[in-house]
Amino acid sequence: MPLKNVIFALLFSVSISAAAQSTASANVKTFQLEAPQLDAIRTIRVYLPAGYDSAKERYPVVYMHDAQNLFDTATAFSGEWQVDEFLDAQKGQKVIIVGIDHGNEDRIAELTPFANEKYGGGEGAAYVDFIVNTLKLYIDSNYRSLPESKNTGIMGSSLGGLISFYAGLKHSDTFGRIGVFSPSFWYSEEIFQFVRTSEISPNTRIYFLGGTAEGEAMVPDLLKMKSLLLDKNFPQENLHVKIVEGAEHNEAFWSSEFPEALQWLLHEN
């Protein structure tokens, strides 16, 4: 099966098994939030650091997409990232993770900033507006977050990597940390032009990840994006590009790379 067909099989598939036992940590809380920009009610899954209720400190926040796949095998398609397992065992950096459930049949539209002639989409600006102007305001008002851009990240894989990169560039005053795993830059050439015309804060940190077995376009597109950023005088020390030999487009790859990426992104400039 061609790679793009495989990817879209993953994009469209939603697997929620009533029989599967939940693997989510007790530190993961779930609630519903109205998303007027999307004309929808969206499920939000928040990971709070161990001891949050008894502590007084504030924490950095990372917003992530496809929350069904982050914490819980019972809601995940093709495995979970095990974000909560890693953070529960973590002795150093503490962080709040805000996972946004994807919109099922609306997923492609919401996670693509520009339309594709064949697959449609292109409603990502509204989704990002929901994160910036509704969800982040709610999180900062109801949790002990560190709201500044240097303490706020956005991160995702595949289309989630694409929309994270777009959101981070469009709102660099909001997101100072951008995690871009296996991004679907192939979806529209407009993302490259968007970079050329965007003003990017030099204090932003960007982490690119890709595997050599993710299709012919993955590595060249990542290197092209790296060159575009450096051509704009983006600081090389704030841009990390990791290419993993033989890595495929799946949750197992992203899960294994999450700890290293998170720690690099949250490192102080």
UniProtKB/TrEMBL annotation:
A GO molecular-function annotation: hydrolase activity
Keyword Hydrolase found: yes
Keywords from the UniProt entry: Hydrolase, Signal
PANTHER family noted in UniProt: ENTEROCHELIN ESTERASE-RELATED (PTHR48098), FERRI-BACILLIBACTIN ESTERASE BESA (PTHR48098:SF6)
InterPro entries per UniProt: AB_hydrolase_fold (IPR029058), Esterase-like (IPR000801), Mycobacterial_A85_antigen (IPR050583)
Domain of life assignment: Bacteria
Protein name: Alpha/beta hydrolase
Pfam families listed in its UniProt record: Esterase
Signal peptide: 1-20
Cell inner membrane is among the record's keywords: no
